[in-house]
Amino acid sequence: MTHHLLTPYRHQSSPLHRAPPAAKLLAAAAIVCAVALSPRLAWIAYGAAGILLAGLAVLSRVPALYLAQRLLMVEPFAVGVALLALFQTNGAAVFASMLVKSTLCLFAMVLLATTTRFSDLVRTLWRARVPAVLVTTLALMHRYLFLIFEEMGRMSRARRSRSFSGSRFASWRAKSSVLAHLFVRSSERAERVYAAMVARGWKT
Amino acid sequence: MNALEIERLSYRYPDGTEALCEVSLTLGEGERLALIGPNGAGKSTLLLHLNGLLPERASSVSPIRVFGTALAASRLAEIRAWVGLLFQDPDDQLFCPTVFEDVAFGPQQWGIAGAELKDRVEGALRQAGLAGYGERLPHHLSRGEKRRVCLAGLLACDARLLALDEPTSDLDPRGRRELKALLKGLPVAQIIATHDLELVAEICSRVVLLDRGAVVASGPALDLLDDEALMIAHGLERPHILRHLHPH
Amino acid sequence: MHIPDGFINAPTAIATGLLAAGGLSVALNRIRKKLPPRRIPLLGLASAFIFAGQMLNFPVAGGTSGHLIGAVLAAVLLGPSAAVLVMSAVLILQCFMFADGGLTALGANIFNMAIVAPGFGYAVYILVRRFTGRTRRGTLVAVAFASWCSTVAASIACAGELAGSGTVAWKAAFPAMAGVHMLIGIGEALITTLVVATVAQRRPELIQERSAPDLRPGYGELIAYGALASLGLAIFVSPFASGWPDGLEKVAASLGFEHRAAAQPVLPSPLPDYAVQGIGSEWISTVLAGVIGTGTAFVLAWLWARLLTPESGRNKVGL
Question: Can you give the pTM of this predicted structure?
Fold first, then answer.
């Protein structure tokens, strides 16, 4: 149900999909840093990055429509800050630069996310000697994300079919109750996962 | 040597309720034993004792012997390789990002790596009927497939005794058939806690009936299951399949 | 308040990156030393829980809806270091999997929402609870107020980073961010308190303090987070609030730094039309607004907790 929201990765057989995850991560980071940290009106740099990214997008065989949709989704927060940026000397230049930079960087990160499995990224972090607790947390979080969303969906539907009040407060109360229940379920599951890990010899 | 010997095992939950009361049983090598009983009888609790997950604080002398070795803190690591515990909810046990990594988890804890690890994992997956599943993601699998991945994970550890908690619960008929065939084909000793009495009749040679933490009866599967009064008295029933398995 | 790429400049990205790494190290260290292994899977499961919580829509007005950040929720349920790790994990996943929050801004986002929010929030929680008492009602007042504070604090840090990068003028950023988040913080307080109250009622043993009392944060830990948060706030906020910029400008000039366009300061510079008196009176009115807002928030927190604990509230069974 919500699965399509939760899986930005779109499997395709393309050179970009096949590329090693570490290389893609570094490439994305390089592009993003170069664009984000370049001077404000470095149009040549922006243009070059844009062409590079467009080329990579073609290489990835990810549908252009999907990419375009993803790039157009804007967060209200970002819009708010961008508008605030106009209210200063040099505001227009700042605004334009923010817009271009954030779009280009978003493009790079979206390409990374659609062509690379998150579990591969986590493995890359593990090999890069990121602390074990953080890597384990990221891996387990990703593994149980879908289950939690399914549980949340089930609980919400069950509550909706039992509730008669349409008031906003009732909805807040119901959702908070769902969250509390989810925490309890997550805690209980965590105990069982620990038991399963120990049962197969997990040494800490 | 018996795969499993339990001599008068008792256990109380942390809040004091008695969960197991002087349970004794033996399981021979290569034998399939079913643990049956109503809900709350203590079947799962018993299974959790087999690899030392319970009791929370290990006692100095354990009433449980696995392949002749008594459960003790110093031997737990080995014993956990011998005893493969299949949890009731495969999602609790399938915690790695991919099927391959999950099946590899056990052997990896033992330091197995590289080509040997790959061979082990692929061998276990083949045994479980999941050849080629290595790169699949857990949340794309059906419940039956998840269960078999968990089983493969235990096989990859060279488990010599499988303890299975409700292995066929909420499986669709095909999933159930596949699992049944798999269990029947595995030569290792198995102790299966289950409500699926048809499964018991089909693949288990002996049965132990547990109710309220105590062993009520034990004996050959078909005889015990045929005892309708006994079955009903303990919240179960005589499985229909007996009509086909018993000529009379 | 996920900051995208391109909204903060290099020095800010680096500074916040260092602060974030520092905070995460403190948390990881604490976890390594004190967290019992059986609670490690909980970190992963709780991260999924917080992520799911952040995605829930809480309808506000018209078609708009609010969202939970969950920093104080995580801190109260899991403990502050676990919360730092959990919030960081959520932000990392959001950045890499959903491009929610920029990569160069990851340090800033982690600093704001995974260090300032839970760390400062938890400190407020502990302090307020000492004042309101460890009864159920007293605890809920502390939870509500701490949640509100955490949201506002994170937004102020965020405003400082944006202004320090020359993206937005401080004069616009601070009131906008702080003002809006004073309102958003109310939602955070309401939801967090409701969830904590429900968990405390059904399964109190799951809340970190009850289940792992030896994980109670040591003073060293609180001081470390407090120091980090203060350092960050000092770097990004105080230059705007005090007379520092004059001093910094002089130093910059004497070192021969070219003063770039006012809209793109390397170090925060004063807005050119401020006179000292101007700063003085505007500053006082800002402080006054802050005090009134915070005071109102505390009263609202107390009223909310009262609503949730209709019994005398004097019962000693706290969290």
Answer: 0.88
